Amino acid sequence: MNPVEVLTALHPLRTHPDVAANALLKAGHLEPARYERFMLGLKTIIAQCEKPKAGPKPVQASLLEVPPINPGTTYNSPVQGDITYSQNWNNKLYCLSWTTIRLASDFYIKGRVYNQWLAERGKERKLIGVATIVNIESFRLEHLTEGAALLDTGYGKAQTQKLIQTMYKSRNLNWDTQLLYRIFLLKI
Fold first, then answer.
1. How far apart are CA 118 and CA 126, in angstroms?
2. How far apart are CA 94 and CA 78, in angstroms?
3. Which of 19, 23, 84, 129 sits a CA distance of 20 to 30 A from 106?
């Protein structure tokens, strides 16, 4: 099932997030203590997932004000670099916030601002926006969770693990020790 089919199948849940949360709760996949937080997160994600109305303009290295993540907090930072995506997995790049799974690198720093580029095979590279990194979690491939895989790629854990290994096959990495980053981004 491709990401479009997954989104189509889940469409009724977009208007009734409580149905999804209650199903997860009854199936034992969601702890009762985390129900309220899960509902808030689910409703926030659903509200943010809208296609952009107009294409963004390239941003030069100028100061940008990032919407506050915590009340009373503002960020002013020049664009620090580019993050390029080979595919818009799970249509996440149309949301206000999303994750990306990358090889661990000191290039990715919490609080920095990056141009976001989509360079799909056979198509011209295009700027899709500007985002700041709001959080970074490190992990090894074997510790990828089903939920993180589904949100990032639209595929399950096993298929996402194979996908990541395929994307980096030319680097001859030791997946038992290689650290990955799950990077949380916020569009600005």
1. 5
2. 23
3. 129
CA separation, residue 119 to residues 3, 90, 95, 97, 107 (Å): 18, 16, 18, 19, 19
As a whole number, mean pLDDT of residues 14-42 equals 63
Residue with tokens 């999303």: 98
User: What's the one-letter identity of residue 113?
Assistant: V
State which residues form the domain around 82. 51-67+75-187
- The number of folded domains in the chain is 2
Integer CA distances (angstroms), 43 to 15, 97, 98, 104, 160, in order = 9, 13, 14, 30, 25
**Which of the four pLDDT bands, split at 50, 70 and 90, describes residue 56?**
low
Whether residue 83 contacts residue 157, with contact meaning beta carbons closer than 8 Å, is answered with no
Q: How far is CA 122 from CA 86, 112, 117, 118, 119, in A?
A: 10, 30, 15, 12, 8
CA distance 40 to 8: 22
pLDDT digits (tens, 9 = 90+) for 120-162: 888 888 898 899 999 999 999 999 999 999 999 999 999 999 9
